[in-house]
Amino acid sequence: MLPEGWKCQTVADICRMQNGNGFGPEDWGTEGYPIIRIQNLNGGNSFDYYSGPVESRWLVEPGQLLFAWAGTKGVSFGPTRWKGRTGVLNQHIFKVKPQDGIDEGWLYWTLRHVTDRIEAHAHGFKATLVHVKKSDIDSQEVFVPDLPTQRWIARTLQMWDDALATTEKLLANSRRQRHDLMQGLLSGHRGFGAKSSRWTQPDFDKLFERITRKNTVGNQNVLTISGQHGLIGQRDFFNKSVASENLQGYTLLELGDFAYNKSYSAGYPVGAIKPLLAYESGVVSSLYICFRIRPDVEADADFFRHYFEAGMLNDAITGIAQEGARNHGLLNVSVKDFFKLKLRVPAIETQRRIAEVLNTAESEERCIAQQLENLKREKRALLADLLTGKRRVRLPEATAEPEAA
């Protein structure tokens, strides 16, 4: 049941959408108006310029509401407010103008809600790359309240958006501070006073021993390395196992063991080294180089977890990777060369102090990240409730601004 005074309409009833112009290579130049493409809606600052005659329907001023009808799900598809300077609009993007009686702020959030609905029903190749017709958008049903209620909803959601932006800045600052701490403490450039211990340069195999035990116990927890989650089960990460059926040749890891995936990825130019922390045991492909701290060596596991994560071995690994060995993202790093890499480490007492500082910074960052996720989840629920009338709004007086019921 809709609240009193609300109407069920379509997107076509509440706004008018005009497509941009198909600018071809013959139109591109270095002077004139910047041509606004989909990538520019996400902050991309690479532009071609158009200096020819301009039609008003192409012209985009700062603050203009736009809608990308072809783009990446959750990234570029859907509505945005243009934050750049005056430019001309390329095709695949609509210029959006609200109809009479429609608040532009409320319209933005309503189109955001419509976008979520369209993306939720995307499938096949459209699961990531969404491409729809204008009629697919125009025909979407929306619930339209009176103008004062629209403004109250828009103002409320904007406050949540501002809170999200503030939390995102806090998270970015926390990550930057932890990165700086890691680089300073793990390189020895930052210490704990004049009496900081001397650092040594042992070979890798002086502190670590290789793990070669095979999966003779039939362990079915196949692990993969994720930059964000570390060593994680494939079923937890992919919702399925992508390993072979016969796992006997896989290497069996136990809690605290390390694995090096020689495949480079975003943030890990020479591959990632991660410890097993989430499970008591699991198995990895024999392509991984697996190791653990030697039982007769006193070393702090958290120190080395941060040491590897900070990329302190990147230059050394680059030096032993054979030239031209990048084959489908896999570096050709031999086990023998890997275990003869030089480490640079302090005494155990300093290792523990460094690990304690970095663990604290990591915990603070994780707390802010969780706050951000909670805010996003709560805002999604609030967005749906407010725009469908599930969360009721009442007007104390006919001319007053609405309040939450």
From TrEMBL:
The keyword Coiled coil applies. Residues 3-170 form the Type I restriction modification DNA specificity domain. Residues 358-392 form a coiled coil. Keywords: Coiled coil, DNA-binding, Restriction system. InterPro entries: Restrct_endonuc_typeI_TRD, Restrct_endonuc_typeI_TRD_sf, Type-I_RS_S_subunit. SUPFAM superfamilies: DNA methylase specificity domain (SSF116734). Belongs to the type-I restriction system S methylase family. This is Type I restriction modification DNA specificity domain-containing protein.
